[in-house]
Structure to design on (202 residues):
């Protein structure tokens, strides 16, 4: 006896539905592989289960992307909307910019410059000169900051304003001691009077 004809409608029982899905999915994949081999056809099958799990097959001689491109050209249907096309164009633009920057970086390293003409070499030389000038300016700036920090630390070592404030608050100020202390200080850190004759009055 032959098999009875099955009514094509949704299977309500979830277990029976899952078993039927697995069997028929495997059957479709098998048929897709067979027609791809027997008939040298390009076949692509994508199946999404109700759970969201994806199953796919594509002929070894092609890729899914190539299949979709061919479908787009032959059918004339738009597979991507304007938003996706803009995103694709933006990605391509960024890739080109990245490639250009990689080439420019190699040129700055002195690599792959044999293909450059005289004008391009002059532009490259100018860019390198500007880079060296900027680098030297930054180095000088850092050296100047370091010198200022060192001078500040030296002043902290030779001058202690707290001791002077305490002596002034107590009304005791040993001028001879201060003179001896200043004599030991480096000339660069000595306090020079605005009027030279002021010290003679003491």
């Amino acid at each position: 006896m032959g098999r009875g004809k099955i009514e094509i409608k949704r299977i309500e029982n979830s277990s029976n539905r899952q078993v039927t899905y697995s069997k028929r999915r495997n059957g479709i994949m098998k048929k897709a592989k067979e027609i791809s081999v027997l008939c040298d056809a390009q076949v692509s099958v994508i199946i999404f289960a109700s759970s969201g799990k994806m199953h796919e097959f594509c002929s070894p001689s092609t890729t899914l992307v190539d299949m979709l491109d061919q479908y787009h050209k032959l059918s004339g249907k738009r597979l991507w909307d304007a938003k996706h096309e803009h995103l694709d164009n933006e990605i391509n633009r960024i890739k080109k910019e990245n490639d250009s920057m990689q080439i420019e970086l190699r040129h700055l390293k002195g690599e792959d410059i044999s293909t450059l003409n005289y004008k391009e070499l002059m532009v490259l030389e100018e860019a390198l000169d500007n880079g060296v000038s900027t680098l030297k300016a930054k180095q000088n700036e850092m050296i100047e900051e370091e010198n200022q920090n060192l001078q500040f630390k030296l002043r902290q070592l030779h001058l202690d304003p707290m001791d002077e404030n305490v002596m002034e608050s107590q009304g005791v100020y040993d001028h001879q001691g201060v003179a001896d202390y200043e004599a030991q200080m480096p000339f660069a850190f000595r306090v020079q009077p605005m009027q030279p004759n002021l010290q003679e009055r003491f």
Notes: The radius of gyration is 42 Å. Residues 8 and 20 are 12 Å apart (CA to CA). Helices lie at 14-38, 64-75, 82-108, 118-158, 161-170, 175-184.
